[in-house]
Amino acid sequence: MARDSETAVLEVENLSVELGIGGRWVRALNNVSLSIRAGEALGLVGESGSGKSLTALAVAGLLPDNARVVGGSIRLKGEAVLGRSEAELNRLRGRALAIIFQNPTTYLNPLLTVGAQIAEVFEVSPELLASEGGGRLGKRERRERGWRLVVEHLRLVHIADPERVARQYPFELSGGMQQRVIIAMALIRRPSLVIADEITTALDVTVQAQILSLLAELRASIGMTLLLITHDMGIVAQLADRVAVMYSGSVVEASDVASLFAEARHPYARALLEAVPKIDGNETLLRAIPGGIPAITNPPPGCRFHPRCPRAFGPCAHSVPAAVALGDRHTVACHLYRDGPA
Ligand code: SF4
User: Fold this and answer.
1) Is residue 149 one of the residues assigned to a domain?
2) What are the pLDDT digits (tens) for 56-81?
3) Is residue 125 part of a domain?
4) Distance from the CA of 4 to the center of ligand 1, in angstroms?
5) Ligand 1 atom nearest residue 321's Cα
6) Whole-number Cα distances in Å, 48 to 228, 230, 295
7) Which pLDDT tens digit goes with each residue over 251-276?
8) Is the confidence at residue 222, as pLDDT, over 50?
9) Which atom in ligand 1 lies closest to the alpha carbon of residue 335?
10) Ligand 1: nearest atom to the Cα of 268
11) Gap from CA of 335 to ligand 1 centroid (Å)
12) Cβ count near 318 (within 10 Å)
C-alpha cells in the first residue's frame, strides 16, 4: 500500500501553535497531525474554540500576527508551508490552495460585477488565459477566453443564466448565489486543496442543503480534495470520507467517517455524535455536552476533556494522553486506549 507521504495532498505533522494573549504566549494547538490524500474529503470537526479554524489558517499560511508556530510541519503537495516568505506563500497558495469562508458578502467586492471579480483571478494566474497550446493570446482573444472561463465556472456551480449573473453586482444576488460565486472563484485555478470553513453556517437550511449537494457533486466531477471545517456532524456524514475530531487544540480521534459513526472511541467524539439530533420513532433525541471548552489561557492539566468526561479515571487529571493507533489511519488520544483497542 502507498505511504501517506507518497499520495498526500496535505500532511500536517505534530503542529503546535501559540497565541500571544494578555502579554504571554498560550498554547492553542498541540501536536496536531492530519493527512488528506488526493480526492479525499476530511471533516475537521469540534465545538467553537477547538482549534479547527486556526489549523486551517496555519495550513494556508494565514496565521494572525499574534500567533507563532512552536513545532511541527505542514506540507502541501510535498512543499513545506512553514518558514516561507509572504511572496513564496502567495505563489504556493495560488498554485495549490483555495479557501472558501463562511460569509460570502465579506469576500465579494460590492463595487465590481461578479464577472469582473472572478476575472481578477487572471491577474495572478495569467497562464489561464494562454492558448490551448500554451502560447500567448492577443488582447481581444484573452478577453474572450476570460469571459468564457467565467461563464463556464458559473455554470459549473449551477448558476442559471451565467452570462446575465456575470454582469450583476453581489448585492443583486441571494446569499446562496453569492456562495456559489465564491466557489466558482475558488475552483477556477483547479487548486490541489480546497478549504471550506463553515461555509453553510450563514445560509438557511434549504440553501445549505443545495450548497452541500453542489460540493458533493464537484468532488465527484472534478476530483476536488477538501478540508471541511465544521461543527456539524451531519455535514461530515454527508460530505467527508474521513474525520478528525478536535478538542481544545488537539486531535482526539481521527478515522474514516463510517467507523466513527459506527463506533466512536473517544468520549468527546461519542458525546458530539450524541448531540446530533436524531429522529427515533416520534421522538427527537438530543443530548447536550455538559460544560464548555476550557479557555486556552487556563486549560485544565492532564486530558483537557477530563472535567467534562463521564469516563475520567486515575491518570486523566494529571497526564496528557498520547495518540494511539487503533487501525489503518485510525487514532485516538485517550487513556482508555493506552494499551491498544479496548
Ligand atoms: Fe476521558 Fe480520560 Fe479519555 Fe480524557 S483521557 S477522554 S478524561 S477517559
Assistant:
1) no
2) 999 999 999 999 999 999 999 999 99
3) no
4) 28
5) 5
6) 15, 9, 11
7) 999 999 999 999 899 999 999 888 76
8) yes
9) 5
10) 6
11) 6
12) 11
